[in-house]
Write a structure and sequence with these properties.
By secondary structure, the protein is α/β, with parallel strands linked by helices. It has 16 helices and 17 strands. Helix 5 packs across helix 6, helix 6 runs parallel beside helix 7 and helix 13 packs across helix 14. The protein starts with 6 loop residues before the first strand and ends with a strand. Bound molecules: N-(iminomethyl)-L-glutamic acid and fe (iii) ion. Fe (iii) ion binds next to loops.
Length: 424
């Protein structure tokens, strides 16, 4: 006797499972394999996939009088997107800066004048947890409506003990109250705050002292190692201290300049190196040997009006595991739409739609150490999936800037139906 399912989703035109028996991130030709089952069905119980196959086969096994059925009517199903790099908790926005940039000022010029990240820090420091949570919830809801079911969120707009803790506590509150899975990263090393402008190394000391206090709230520690932010030496000190306190490491690097962040990521065995828009062939080869996930964020050069996109094709040809994320933040990518990121990855970085789908699901799950639980549609994994109103997965990036997600299922529960959030 088969277990009675909680939910049976049938008549899926293309069930894109992304499944992969190997426990490792996908590389090389495996980036092009997305495990399509035609006329597929999935069976969900207690929040997990308990069976996957064709509708014909599974119908016989599981249909009972009272089975709850969703008919996908020939549409496409994907695993929920995993947005493995965001800065979702912030106050205010930067529309003024948007206009300045259109008129010719650069992102780094604005930052050097005390704007950019620092203006968001000012706006974030003013807010209470409850206000920050309200603002962030709205952003998370928008992401969920666009198919993201798991999100990584970094702190980094507080830059002092009290404000960084406030941001991490906001994340903790959202972890308890929002349907999405949220993983937290401490990014005290985002930029040097104004009060330490003349003594940046004292701020590095302060971050090292913050680490034990923020540990209960964050899994990862990240550093912005780039021009205008932290040097390789400062980043090394922070990341080494974090490693000693059992944080897993991430690094923002080579977004603007190559100042040695890739070497640091390799030396300290970071779980991911993110951005990499300005990376040399030599470092691509070194990254391959290290198996570090390269998290590429094409929304950033797009929004900053630059032509330097990370060389994704070259990375894939060299066997580097590539993931994609939005980098959702008020300065360099105020969009949390992973479908748009897939389109940009295809058009601006030469990734195929299949590669981009692997990069936004299973490889992105690896980039936050969660691939054993999420990122693909496989028996035993958490039932996170989206139904898109398209007939073939290639239509996702092709009909661009359209939200194709009709239904989102998170841990086996319908959280978006007919493009609307369901109140739980
Ligand atoms: O990932 N690079 C550093 N941090 C963000 C930008 C944050 C901001 O401009 O507010 C990024 O691009
Ligand atoms: Fe970022």
């Amino acid at each position: 006797m088969n277990m009675l399912p909680d939910l049976f989703v049938q008549n899926i035109g293309q069930l894109v499972t992304v499944a992969d028996a190997s426990q490792k991130p996908k590389t090389f030709h495996r980036m092009d394999e997305i495990g399509i089952i035609k006329d597929g069905a999935v069976v969900i119980r207690d929040g997990y996939f308990i069976d996957i196959g064709t509708t014909r086969k599974l119908k016989k096994k599981y249909h009972r009088k009272d089975t709850k059925i969703i008919d996908a009517a020939g549409k496409v199903v994907l695993p929920g997107f995993v947005d493995c790099h965001t800065h979702t908790i912030f106050g205010g926005d930067r529309t003024g800066e948007f206009i300045q940039r259109i008129q010719g000022e650069t992102y780094l010029e604005i930052l050097k004048k005390g704007g950019g990240i620092l203006s968001t820090v000012e706006n974030t420091r003013k807010l209470k947890i409850q206000n920050l949570a309200e603002l962030s919830r709205k952003h998370l809801d928008t992401m969920l409506l666009h198919g993201t079911t798991t999100v990584e969120i970094k702190s980094g707009y507080g830059l002092d003990m009290k404000s960084e803790l406030k941001i991490l506590k906001t994340i903790q509150y959202l972890q308890k109250t929002h349907p999405m899975d949220i993983v937290a990263t401490f990014l005290g090393a985002h930029v040097i705050p104004p009060e330490y402008k003349h003594s940046p190394n004292s701020y590095v000391n302060l971050i090292c002292n913050m680490l034990p206090k923020v540990k209960p709230y964050a899994t990862f520690c990240d550093v912005f190692c780039d021009e205008g932010a932290f040097s390789a030496e400062q980043s090394e000190r922070i990341l080494k201290t974090a490693k000693a306190s059992s944080f897993r490491l991430k690094i923002h690097t080579n977004e603007f300049k190559d100042i040695g962040g890739v070497s640091l990521a390799i030396q300290l065995n970071a779980i991911s190196a993110d951005h990499l828009d300005n990376i040399k062939q030599r470092d691509i080869v070194r990254l391959k040997k290290s198996n570090i996930l390269c998290v590429l964020l094409p929304g950033v050069p797009f929004f900053l009006m630059k032509d330097t996109y990370a060389p994704a094709r070259k990375m894939i040809e060299n066997g580097v595991p590539v993931a994609l994320a939005t980098d959702f933040n008020p300065g360099t990518c105020p969009s949390g739409n992973m479908q748009m990121i897939i389109t940009l990855a295809c058009l601006k970085m030469g990734m195929t739609p299949a590669q981009a789908i692997n990069a936004t699901t299973i490889n992105a799950a690896h980039a936050i150490g969660a691939a054993h639980r999420i990122g693909s549609i496989e028996v035993g994994k958490q039932a996170d999936m989206i139904i898109l109103d398209i007939q073939e997965y290639t239509q996702l990036p092709y009909y661009f800037s359209i939200n194709h997600v009709k239904t989102t299922i998170k841990k086996g529960k319908i959280v978006v139906e007919n493009m609307q959030l369901i109140d739980s």
